[in-house]
Every structure is written in C-alpha cells, then in structure tokens.
Amino acid sequence: MADLLGGRRGAVDATLPPVAFAVGWLAGGHSLWGGVGAAVATGVLLAGWRLRRGDRPRSVLIGLLAVCVAALIALRTGRATDFFLLQLLSNAASALAWAVSIVVRWPLLGVIVGAVLGQRGRWRRDPALVRAYARGSWVWAATYVLRLAVFVPLWLGGQVVALVVARVALTWPLVATALAVSWVVIQRSLPAGHPGLRHPAGSPPPPQGPQPSPQAEQR
Question: Where does the record place the region Disordered (predicted)?
Fold first, then answer.
C-alpha cells in the first residue's frame, strides 16, 4: 500500500509545488504570478528529475498537469487560495468514491489489496473479508473528510500559508497513520481462525509442492 501511494518520496514530490507557490507568492509581495511561476518551475524540475530516475512517464505527466491546472485556476479567478481548489475537489471526490465503494460492497481497500495479492475478485466470495475491508475503507474515507474539514475553512478565509502547512501535515503523516489504523481494523474485524488476507475463505487453497502424476498415483 505504501509503495502504491508513492511512499515518503511521493509525498514530498506532491508538496513541493504548493510550498514553492507560497514562497513565490510571499517573495513577490503577494504576487499571484510569482507564486504560479515558482510552482510551475518546481513542477517542471520535479518532472525532469522523476523521469531521470526511471518513473513512469504517464504518472510524471499527470503530476505536472495537476500543477499546471491548479496554476491556471488561480490565474483565472485571481485568488491565490484557488491554487488549492483542485486539491479540495480531489479530496471531496475521493471521500465520495471510498464511501460509495463501501455501500456497493466493493470496498476500495479490498480492490487495492486484492489486486496487489493477485486475487482479482476472489476476496469478495469471503463475507468476513468483505466486511473487514469495508471497515478498513472507512478509515481511508475519514482521511479525506478530515482534509476537507481543515482545508475548506482555510480556503474560505484566504489563508495561503496555512493551506500549505496543512497540505504538508496532512500528506504522508496522515497516509502512514491510515495505513497503520486500517491494518489494525482489518485484523480485528476478521473472526478467529480466518486464514488471512492472502487466503480468502471459500477460495481453493494454493498447491503445496509438486503434485504426483496420475501414473504415479496408480502405481
């Protein structure tokens, strides 16, 4: 899960452009162009560095595109805090997606972990595992709600620097906390004797060593 979410390095990459925006905005005497220029320049440098270290071009371009779109929104509205509007909308959409996935009994945590473990949809045949993943998914939905509860008042109040501080504080530290808490929730939600995440109940057990041939069995 940590690797899928980018780890600490991914969190740093995501927070550097907003920090650069605030620095440029302050250095330019609350100049919107100063903030936008600093953020886009930082995004371009990060994209070049990530390509050199071998990151997938698609993910690099998506990250750079997000910075450019945030900059365009701020320039279009003329409000520095609107540089963070895309982040607010993204968190709102994520909170909704996690909640809906739980309601329709396709909890996103199960989808992600199942894909990592190569289970596809086999985990859904295990009611106990579906329930555990649903409870763990509520932890992740809560992280997006928490971000919104912090970001929205700061955005409405025009608090640019406070938004940057909140963005940094609620990125990797919050993700690490959600990883730990959701793991505990899943483990405590599974009944005693459950075979675990890697072996959903009702799925055929993995083969144990080489199987004898029919001829050998007949002999």
Answer: 196-219
**Using 50, 70 and 90 to split pLDDT, how confident is the model at 1?**
low
Token pair listed for 200: 């959903």
Q: Report how far residue 119's alpha carbon sits from residue 63's, in angstroms, rounded to the nearest whole number.
A: 29
Q: Please state the separation of Cα 145 from the chain's center in Å.
A: 13
Maximum Cα–Cα distance for the chain, whole Å? 88
CA 30-75-96 angle, 5° bins: 105
**pLDDT (0 to 100) of residue 34:** 95
Burial (CB count <10 Å: 0-12, 13-18, 19+), residue 31:
middle
Question: Per residue in 52-80, pLDDT tens?
Answer: 888 778 878 888 999 999 999 999 999 99
The sign of the torsion formed by the CA atoms of 26, 31, 34, 38 equals positive
C-alpha–C-alpha distance, residues 4 and 42, integer Å: 23
* 99 SS3 class: helix
Q: How many CB atoms lie within 10 A of CB 88?
A: 18
Average pLDDT over residues 132-155: 96
